[in-house]
Amino acid sequence: STPLVSVSLINTTVNANQSAGVECINTDLSIQGGTISANQFGGVWGNGCEMSLTNVQIIGNSTPGNGGGIMSANYAPVVNGGVIRENQADGMGGGVYYWGLTGREMQMSGVLLEENAALSGGGVYVDAAKARLDDVTLRDNLALEDGGGIYVADNNEATLTLRNDSQVGEAGHGNSSDADGDSSGVGAGIFNIGTLIIENS
Q1: Is 155 helix (H, G, I), strand (E, B) or coil?
Q2: Using CA atoms, how far apart are residues 54 and 187, in angstroms rounded to an integer?
Q3: pTM > 0.90: yes or no
């Protein structure tokens, strides 16, 4: 789409497409409820997209690139509630890949990320700008290399804040790095070379 266009999906099922489930460029995108699953270029793909997701189930999507569940570049998505599960990226960010703009902050609240997988950042990969996770649980996520649960890079002052009872792993449901077994991967829960802030988590 072009700038200033607004798209709203309510309780919609987007399933088994050979491209991204939902793709937006320079668009105001709102998704409320519904399921985005089994798409072959990620669940939600956005570039310059003002993205708001509320209680959406993003399950079983895959991509040869970054962001199996959500890929967001050049803007900052807001994700409230919902589940991001069993998504896979051959690149970074099995559940969520975020490359934002300076001064913008990705916000996630009350979200469960589980059983996602990627080369690095099985659950969440923060590549640039700021991200805030409130009451977010990451469990059973997997990285072939670094950051089974979370990867915070050092690009453009990447900053991640975990707040308000956010959990990285649970008893019997830890995140894993170095899944290929070559002893080079680190940070099963969190791999951080940017800025990491943990509050009441």
Answers
A1: helix
A2: 30
A3: yes
Closest alpha carbon to 190 in 138, 154, 144:
138
Residue type, 162: L
Query: Per residue in 145-172, pLDDT tens?
Result: 999 999 999 887 899 999 999 999 998 9
Q: Distances from the Cα of 20 to the Cαs of 4, 63, 66, 174, 199, in angstroms? A: 21, 8, 12, 29, 34
| β-pair partners for 35 | 13, 57
Count of Cβ atoms closer than 10 Å to residue 102 Cβ: 9
Task: Please count the other Cβ atoms lying within 10 Å of the Cβ belonging to residue 33.
Answer: 15
Choose among 27, 71, 68, 25: nearest CA to 45: 71
Calpha distance 57→23 (Å, rounded): 16
- Rounded Cα distance between 29 and 25, Å, is 9
For residues 59 and 33, is the Cβ–Cβ distance under 8 A?
no
